[in-house]
Amino acid sequence: MRFLSTMMAAAGLLSAAWGTAAPASTLSDVRDRGTLRCGVHIEKPGFSTTDASGVVSGFDIDFCKAAAAAIGVEPEFLPLSPQQRFTALTSGAVEVLLMTTTQTMNRDTKLGADFPFINFYGGGMLMVPRSLGVTSTTQLDGASICMSAGTTADQFLADYFRKTGQTYSQVLFEKLEDGFRAFVEGRCDAFTQDDTSLAAMRMTLANPDDFVILPELLSKEPVGAVTRQNDSEWNNVMTWVFAALVNAEELGLTQANVEDMAATSEVPEIQRLLGATGTLGPDAGLAQDWAVRAIRAVGNYGEIFDRHLGTQSRFNMARGINDLWSRGGLIYGLPIR
Amino acid sequence: MTAGVRGRGQGPAAGWHILSRYRHHLFRATIVLALLGGAAAIYAGASARLAARGVGTGFGFLLQEAGFAIGETLPILLPSDAGGWAFVALLLAAAGGLAMPLLAGGTAARRGAALGFLALLGAGGMAALGVAGVALVEYSPERSFAFALSAGFANTVKAGLFGCVIATAAGVLVGIARLSSNWLLARAATAFVETLRNIPLLVLVLFWYFGVLRALPAVRQSLDIGGTVVLNNRGVFLPDIHATGGTWPVILALLAGTGLAVMTYRRAIAAKMATGALPGWWAAVPLLPVAAPALAWALSGAPATFSYPVLSGFNYVGGLRLSPEFAALLLGLGLYHAAFIAEIVRAGLQGVDPGQRQAALALGFREGRILRLIVFPQALRVMFPPLITQYLSLIKDSSLGFAIAYPELVTLNNVIINQTGQPIEVLLITISVFMAFNLMVSFILNRFERRYAWSWA
Asked: Inter-chain contact A149–B414, Cβ cutoff 8 Å?
């Protein structure tokens, strides 16, 4: 099935490559069409999920909504498998990927892609059954490890086990659910995924206490948005919409108070961000109140995190390194001026 | 064609005569070249435009380090220097040249000789492993993407070949059973066919995989049969002979013994045809393949070491392991296609004129011999073409292994697309490999059909 869709995507890439050159301006294309098309995960708890009535929500979804609101168009979500995503992007099926794509040098230089922002800093981890008695990833020599395709897991595991002089055997599934099921049924000693997914998947089990997530971070997985290369105007929009959401958190702007603040605030930074002064929005090809629209749609970075991954979600994840730089995290709002 | 049927000297010049004789070859070559050229032009155009967008293109990635592990791999014959490559090319060419008489026909003696030489050639190849720049190498993450694809292809071939064997064995039995006069047996065979051929293969494979996993005990509760055969949800573990240096003579002797046995068999049959009685040395045929390696083993000081599965750390190590993924894929492929082969066999058997069987009965043949000697050989003619198609689709269906973590070619195809971001190149390779392999299989089987199914026609 995925093979078929990969084939179709490749055919799309071929025909796109064969067809006309890239459009002159992604931003005006989006505006003309009236929709921003985002490539998102088919299902990834916390990041992109579809509920029973077909409503798509999640951490990544909110960044798509924010960008669409800032431009003044409707967001549209195109579910993609990890294997399809770069092909879908370069063939023009979507304008941006918001599906926890790790930024790596190879991807940045060889896939015709740019990474305008990182919205989440994660890492690969391992889960084992508690009954195995293993407490560290250094005790896994000879273990078999279940995982799913389309991630960087197969590479970081190979690196980690080579580095620690351990051996392992890999059981690589096409679908995440199948790999996890095989692990739960005892096919493997361990299961690997990024830290947030592991925590979320463990919660879905009937007996989560029978499984433990080992403490070591096996890899760095900075994930975020991906756009087509050589599209500066469009990259600028993406970079600065994200910066606006982080600045909003730094400045105490929320979904609830942003309109009031836009009208009444005397703080120069807030006035510049919300378009009360200056022409930063129009300079980027956006409206004067671009940031107000984005924050009104989804709230600031912290609100988005809490809603889907943090305290207001069933995962109740700590901000950790995804907290603001001023509180010891890595989230840093580029200056809006 | 008109020029071709005219006699020499009547038509245009001799040059045109020769041209007309080969004209159809010329047409074919032109069409093939045009197709290849068109494909190359499309690929060149696409990669030029992709390069303009900053997307990596070309096949350079094939030699880069893969950097990921593969669950189960077969060792691959890998030449390590130019001499090694030359040797492998020579070996393949010689094997191909010698296989031709076998496929194309020829006298029994010629075929016997060719088979014997093939066995000797194989033995020579094995011996060369020790000296030439050729080694059996197992995949590891430091190897290249090309190596990874080859490892995937080896797994595809493994699943395809074993699947064909299982499907044929089960299919022939079930097909004969469907025509049985035993009510229970015939109905059971019908139930087998109707159940299996009406369920999607992917569902069957998933069912077998998760069914197998659920049914088998965990590692600590493994089913242990006398410390030699161990069964758990990580696989089936069997004792294994380790090919240490001293084991080579045994393998060589086995190959040579088999080759000699085939030659002896041919001579014995020829003698029986000539004189009506089997010569006494016929008894050597079954003995040779056993006696030769046994002798070699004894002469080289009985060096082989056996390895048994032993629980160590997380799992059993040592011995020969059959993974649940491979087992489930084999069961799914084998039984699903057995249902179709059973129908092919039934069609073939029913296609033979009932008069043949009645005549044989009148001559006093027993049912078993009628089937074996009279009905089945004639049915083979009808069965062969659809059987070949069935084998080819079985080989292609092995690609469903990607759904249950069996690392065959399509699984590796997907992994490498994800890591390199070059779907066009990787898919081109996968498509070409599947096509080349299936064309080769179909070529060999078609030759085989012409030679054996129609040999008495």
From this structure: yes
